[in-house]
Amino acid sequence: MPRQYVMVVRCDDRPGIVHSVTGAMLAVAGNIIENAQFTDPGSNTFVMRTRFVSENMEFDRVRGGVVSSLAGTDIDVQLRAEDNFRRALIMVSKFDHCLLDLLYRYRTGELQVEIPLVVSNHPDCAEMVEGYGIPYLHMPITADTKAAQEAKLLELIDEHRVDFVVLARYMQVLSEDLCEALRGRAINIHHSFLPGFKGAKPYHQAHARGVKLIGATAHYVTPDLDEGPIIDQDVVRVSHTHDADALVRMGRDVERNVLSRAVQAHAQDRVVLIGDRTVVFP
Amino acid sequence: MPRQYVMVVRCDDRPGIVHSVTGAMLAVAGNIIENAQFTDPGSNTFVMRTRFVSENMEFDRVRGGVVSSLAGTDIDVQLRAEDNFRRALIMVSKFDHCLLDLLYRYRTGELQVEIPLVVSNHPDCAEMVEGYGIPYLHMPITADTKAAQEAKLLELIDEHRVDFVVLARYMQVLSEDLCEALRGRAINIHHSFLPGFKGAKPYHQAHARGVKLIGATAHYVTPDLDEGPIIDQDVVRVSHTHDADALVRMGRDVERNVLSRAVQAHAQDRVVLIGDRTVVFP
Amino acid sequence: MPRQYVMVVRCDDRPGIVHSVTGAMLAVAGNIIENAQFTDPGSNTFVMRTRFVSENMEFDRVRGGVVSSLAGTDIDVQLRAEDNFRRALIMVSKFDHCLLDLLYRYRTGELQVEIPLVVSNHPDCAEMVEGYGIPYLHMPITADTKAAQEAKLLELIDEHRVDFVVLARYMQVLSEDLCEALRGRAINIHHSFLPGFKGAKPYHQAHARGVKLIGATAHYVTPDLDEGPIIDQDVVRVSHTHDADALVRMGRDVERNVLSRAVQAHAQDRVVLIGDRTVVFP
Amino acid sequence: MPRQYVMVVRCDDRPGIVHSVTGAMLAVAGNIIENAQFTDPGSNTFVMRTRFVSENMEFDRVRGGVVSSLAGTDIDVQLRAEDNFRRALIMVSKFDHCLLDLLYRYRTGELQVEIPLVVSNHPDCAEMVEGYGIPYLHMPITADTKAAQEAKLLELIDEHRVDFVVLARYMQVLSEDLCEALRGRAINIHHSFLPGFKGAKPYHQAHARGVKLIGATAHYVTPDLDEGPIIDQDVVRVSHTHDADALVRMGRDVERNVLSRAVQAHAQDRVVLIGDRTVVFP
User: Fold this and answer.
1) Which of A178, A198, D39, D168 is the most exposed place for a label (fewest CB within 10 A)?
2) Per-residue pLDDT for B231 more than 90?
3) Closest residue of chain B to D46, computed from CA coordinates
4) So what's the ipTM on this one?
């Protein structure tokens, strides 16, 4: 059975792009399985995600064909064999519901990621992670060690060829420099339906306000806390019978679902950034 | 078949309330069909909504029995025959999707309200309303006439024995005095998932932020705009393919559903206020 | 502003289809706004829906280009200017909730259909329909007149250049011949979550079974009653407190939503049949 | 802080029941925290679930008070201290997604159950279960050993004072005798939205039929396979892009949620059987 590839192209919009891109695929006898496109009218940006099979694939030939056929535009091409999974480094503190959900879906294969390492500022989740055969690094952080530890983190990301970072209820605020270094490749789960309840203790804020739905938001990390591009969101219905503790409890289910979906979408190259907004191909 | 009644009791919590209230019902041979209670730990408030049948009902006897048995507490009792529908005055401007949904559900009987009058600052919806056999009053508002028109509105509310007011996309801001006069008995639909996008053009705000769900909120009107106690909320999933106009269009469906549910809940005495939060019995 | 077109192509899958189709569009300087594809592995069927703009459109040139470039395969091409709306004939009996929802969305423009005629076996909905400026034909049906009336219906479909028929709670069973004549272009709303409760009184069946969700199903009509290809479905949560009448009432909301979504999808050429299953492009 | 109790009363309906029951609670200075009732008109059955606090609880006094005050009716009273958790025996085969979700929620305390034992006809899940500190019994079943193993299971249920059994994707059909022995206290998760796709491979059935939503159903086990009283159901939206394997994968999420909710509801005495239907107090 021929191997499957996924290509993402982003460039300025103009007539003929799809014709050009598919021409480059034909040169390696590629046959499209799935294709999705979107043109953002505001920024005149074209984005395309294509899955195709090919029996005589040549990466450089496809990439080169796409780029040369679209010469003159600012173009971004990603091309990957689908079985060459994206590599995710997970960070966690003590709450482990998101972590466990990611690990379980990793093991069933539905996430389509490699997880070379889990890093935590606490030792609590070591046993769970190691039970899934994944190394766990306890990396405590204090105000004094923060800069050094973040530098070490970047080294680990490099060393383990990490594609993206997942903050699975990691309770440390990243420095502005680290946020910049990870721009577009670090996913956070915020335990509220942004922009509703920014900041600390969002479920307590939600309870005080008497809302009838609570939610969670997966977004890319930016220096502007809780303001990064949104990847996914979801909500669950609550009522007057639920106190703040109940909201925390119910929120866990939403958080794990939203984060896992966002990680899966990113791992499958379904998320494309256009400014502060995301395109998420279904 | 015996007639059905609905009673709502709110008082400070203490042991024996249900026993006392049901004792008062037994005095008129009442038999409970449906009963729901909630005790708010924060304020130590007890609320109870009971539907019962009785073949020899005496309103004063039940009310008196409840009050005397709970002497010494600050108690609020509402008692109504279920077929004696609450009377709602609807206010609307030009957007008619919420209005039409209310009128249709009024005609099928599922709202369980009387609608003696629809008031609007525009003439546009007259034909639709009159088609449902309901009087329509065009009451234009300018800065100069606002005070006089609001005074007239209060007269109409009195004259038509109106129980509550529904702002079905009524685009005028009510004065602080009018908000106070209608406290707890005026329902507004805000076209966003509060507290997410307060103020004007919430769908455009939502689009700019790139959210993945948009929503609507039905709440009681208070002088603090968009901050009143929430009765109901709902959301719908959106994606990068939806521009602000599409969000407006999709938002209409959520708005009409949320407002109709809130009106129905209020009309059936299912909503009880405790401070800035609501109890909504299902 | 250049005019917008929508093209749907269905053919046997093979490499190069998208390249060929986009080549034919380039010949009229077409630029793609939206593009979706699907290849069904079971039947090796390729389907593609493309929206594009063009300032010098020639219908025959695009159609011819597509067909000649894909010579040798069994190919089906639909091409339409988007502002040339599909024409829907609606049929209804007495329940008017689906009808009203369709008419309202027709008037707001979100359905993107023309409605040249509403046909009913009862006179009840005449006023509502005519209020929207649409002719209403009362066409009673008895066992004796059924064949003649169905023949007349087919004449009306021809005369009014009707693209598809919507059975908006039309309570007559169509003859096998009529079903065949309308294959793939008649949409029915079944008031249950098929295949759960086929046949009559599905809400009463659902209540007797004690289900916790009830639903509705929009599908294409086939001679095999309640078995046609499904276009859309939805559900709503119910509980022990809801008797069969309440299920009927709650079901109305689901029915109107599901049918309107299915009609909109069909009207926008988003639904493609592959055997007994549908592709519905989002 | 006073201890909390939960009482469930089921009897024929007649006036005065709530007054009687609350009278019996007053005798031990009970104060109601939460109260829900339902009267089933078809069977004239009254059911009531009450949570209350008491500082001088006497179980026999409350039970006796309730029973004597309702003398002459067929009455069923359950009374339990809330911190005296129900004891669940879980059965599983190889699919472990429901099991893991139950174990995780068990550990967080949100299920409010004790799990004295997990029994399986396969050894696969031993490590996962023992990691949560729960004994795992591998009890293989063949046609020859089935009767003996079921007898042993009943002994284990007795020995471990098990309140109810959870079939968390246990792939063996229970004998009719065992079903009878566990009537009303064995919960199964069926991996379809019953009554839609009974029997084997429901996701493959769903895919062949082209449905747009798939679901799962938690129900009490009865000798009539897949027909027991439904406790909870849920669905997830699917599309033409999902093959049968994808439905299986997406179905896992629904199954684990529905089963965990049903187990929690049962464990908290929220589920009351009336014939073949359930009352599930929210």
Assistant:
1) A198
2) yes
3) B33
4) 0.94
